[in-house]
Amino acid sequence: MFLISLLIFLGLTFQTFYYVEKNIEPVLHNIARVRAEQLATKAIHDAINQKIMKEEDLKKLIDVRADKDGKIQAAFLNSNEHTRIVFEATENVMHTLKEMENMSEPIPLGQALQSNLLAQLGPDLPLKLVPLGSVHVELKPKMQQAGINMVLMTVYMNVEAKVRIVIPFSTQPAVVRTEIPISNALIVGNVPQFYYDGAGRPIGSEVPGVQPPPIVPPIGINSTTIEK
After folding, report:
1. What pLDDT shows up at residue 221?
2. What superkingdom heads the lineage (predicted)?
3. Number of structural domains in the chain
4. What is the DSSP string of 15-78?
């Protein structure tokens, strides 16, 4: 009798572990990955906003050069400020992620059942983030048309961090990437006396007396695509 009860118990235990491994564990991994990426992204943004974004030296990041008449000739990143900001951002993000290693985020096991009624059902599984290697920080300027002869130059900080997601009986690596705008400058060039809009209408204070000929698209030309 004891042997039969033992076999039934072992069989039920095996089926339970098999069900958890095949059905619950993949869902739990996805939940843990999404939550871990949210936590890491928030930590990165907090590290940048609390330290880097409050510095007055950010105004020196974009170096605008003008000629003797005050006309803007070029705009580029200040190399000294670029190096300093990247170094400080890397240190701050690594320090923040290192502090998260001692913290845990509870995930209710009921969320893995994909049921709204059981979503908050326990027990809670502890989720931990462990930083892996160094943090990669890069500054990238992007140009955007802001009007007639005006360009908005925005500097974005791209941060990439590798972490390990740790939940009971399982670990998996993850890469967290985020982009944060940290500085911008409006570059204004010479405004022409007149220009033509998209419909060919002249706009400005001095409209030329001679109008440009209308643009007529070619007719009857077939488009050919050559595939190799």
Report:
1. 43
2. Bacteria
3. 1
4. HHHHHIIIIIHHHHHHHHHHHHHHHHHHHHHHHIIIIITT-GGGGGSEEEEE-TTS-EEEEEE-
Q: Does residue 81 lie in a domain region?
A: yes
Domain presence at residue 207: no
User: CB burial class (10 A; 0-12, 13-18, 19+) of residue 13?
Assistant: exposed
pLDDT value of position 172: 83
Q: Is the pTM of this model over 0.90?
A: no
Q: What is the pLDDT of residues 118-163, one digit of tens each?
A: 556 667 778 888 888 778 888 888 888 776 677 788 888 899 988 8
Torsion sign across C-alpha atoms 25, 27, 33, 35? negative
Closest residue by Cα to residue 41 from 161, 167, 141, 172 = 161
* Beta carbons within 10 angstroms of residue 105's beta carbon: 17
Which residues fall within 8 angstroms of residue 221, CB to CB, at 6 or more apart? Answer: none
d(CA 139, CA 52): 13
Domain membership of residue 160 (yes or no) is yes
Pick the closest to residue 82 from 159, 128, 138, 6 (CA basis).
138
Question: Which domain range does residue 51 map to?
Answer: 2-195
The per-residue DSSP string of 91-160 comes to HHHHHHHHHHTT--EEEEGGGGGT-STTTT-SPEEEEEEEEEEEEEEEEEEEEEEEETTEEEEEEEEEEE
Residue 173 located in a structural domain: yes
Residues 6+ apart with CB under 8 A from 108: 119, 120, 121, 122, 123, 124, 125
Both structure tokens of 58: 């950010």
